[in-house]
Amino acid sequence: MTRFYESIERHLVAVDCVIFGYDIIDKNLKLLLIKRRFEPLKGGWSLPGGFVNDDESIKEAAGRVLKQLTGLEQVYMEQSYAWGEPGRDIGGRVITISHFALIKIQDIDPVMQEASAAHWRNITRLPDMVLDHSNLVGRALKELKERVKVKPVGFELLPEKFTLVQLQDLYEAIYMKNVDKRNFRKKILSMNLLEKMDEKEKETSKKGAYYYKFLPEKYEEFRRQGFYFNLDVN
Amino acid sequence: MTRFYESIERHLVAVDCVIFGYDIIDKNLKLLLIKRRFEPLKGGWSLPGGFVNDDESIKEAAGRVLKQLTGLEQVYMEQSYAWGEPGRDIGGRVITISHFALIKIQDIDPVMQEASAAHWRNITRLPDMVLDHSNLVGRALKELKERVKVKPVGFELLPEKFTLVQLQDLYEAIYMKNVDKRNFRKKILSMNLLEKMDEKEKETSKKGAYYYKFLPEKYEEFRRQGFYFNLDVN
DNA sequence: CCAAAAGTGTTAGGCTTACACCCATGC
DNA sequence: GCATGGGTGTAAGCCTAACACTTTTGG
């Protein structure tokens, strides 16, 4: 493969993952962070990342990092931004391509999480982070906010079945503002993307709240017909 | 700088530029393409690109490529996407970070353009392109469409002074659909971002159309006050 | 005087927003 | 029977979209 381009400078290329999770109990949007396991800056709070191997795509590299940390595959992940200031990594010039992933907190393999020393941290109270990782987080969060407005990806952060209250709480956590309950319900239900189940969630209230589930096939069908998801909320 | 990370595989990292221009006369959105000057695929239609040097950021590399081709600096440019499939470049594994730039066609240095064998090609009639460059274009175009709706960047493609008809034609070329004249004018003028000049453009009509200019300072001021540019058009 | 392009307002309907009370149940 | 959280409807106004004629002037 490498017959041409031989005299050209090469670079270390990495991927970093901004892994979002949502805690349905304390209603906080969270990030999965690790303590950096190598020098320089060993022990500092860091995004999970890794170098891109010769035989894998960027996407595969990011997927590999995510799987090593969480045990999860087929996770919703988007490329975010390529960071390449020559001085951004004090250990040498590294170009990193940040991604953000949305995972269901409860799906994570607890053994793996323990082994990798990964920690969930509230998005509102992040520690100081290594290198420019706070910037990567900031950008990913901004992109997430835009994305959940126009694509039904919030469900990636919730269990299969969830109540409308939980869904609203999630949106409030992401938008970082309150949302009108009646308008929110009207809007999301009017899209016909949710199926109401018979079962009720009874932990958090005496009356109980109906579970719903998201119908991805419906979304695909409507999309093909020109429908645009929109949950722009006051 | 390179004390750590020594044993790790390195990669060729490039930038490619999707350079948009708008021809006010024939009302076409165009791309600046070149004939590839080196093997493999020498002579094929290609996006202008180049490898990232050791001492420059990704943004600088893209700026350098753009300047070499057009003579222009301080051009509106956004990073688009990092493309890294191992097999995407038949000459060896190259990770490329695509960008899109918006330039005023008439600003380009004609000597430079000649020398670099750069050609403007209508977006609606692009030639077959080398490697995966059609994909990079597709993505950049999609991002441009989104961007002009929510950010006043269309003006980057027009001369300093332009008529409302010209502005509308530009939006029609980007959106690839017709726009209602009265609604378009109402909307753009209501934002108070344009200044009407006394002068008229008299080439294209006997009556003549008033020139306007965009006021970037106004935009900045309004932005700070929480204003969001929006030109979502029917 | 005519052809060609610039410029201009109004209306109906849909969507957004604001807002407060009843319901079901466990204790 | 009461406290707790779940669930529901309506009205005002704002924004969007549809639509056609008048103005100017060079030839």
Question: CATH topology of the largest domain in chain A, anyone?
Answer: Nucleoside Triphosphate Pyrophosphohydrolase
Gap from first CA to last CA of chain A: 54 Å
Structural class of chain A: alpha+beta
Q: Low-confidence runs of chain A (pLDDT<50, min 5 residues)?
A: none
Supply the CATH class of the largest domain in chain A.
Alpha Beta
Number of domains of chain A: 2
Describe, in plain words, how this protein is organized in 3D:
By secondary structure, chain A is α+β, with helices and mostly antiparallel strands. Chain A folds into two domains: 12-148, Alpha-Beta Complex (Nucleoside Triphosphate Pyrophosphohydrolase); 158-224, Arc Repressor Mutant, subunit A (Orthogonal Bundle), CATH 1.10.10. Chain A has six helices and ten strands; from the N terminus they run E-E-E-E-H-E-E-H-E-H-E-H-H-E-E-H. The relative contact order of chain A is 0.16. The A-B interface holds A 1-5, 8-13, 38-40, 51-59, 79, 81-86, 91-95, 97 and B 1-5, 8-13, 38-40, 51-59, 79, 81-86, 91-95, 97. Chain A binds a DNA duplex (27 and 27 nucleotides) through residues 163-165, 180-183, 185-187, 202, 204-210, 234.
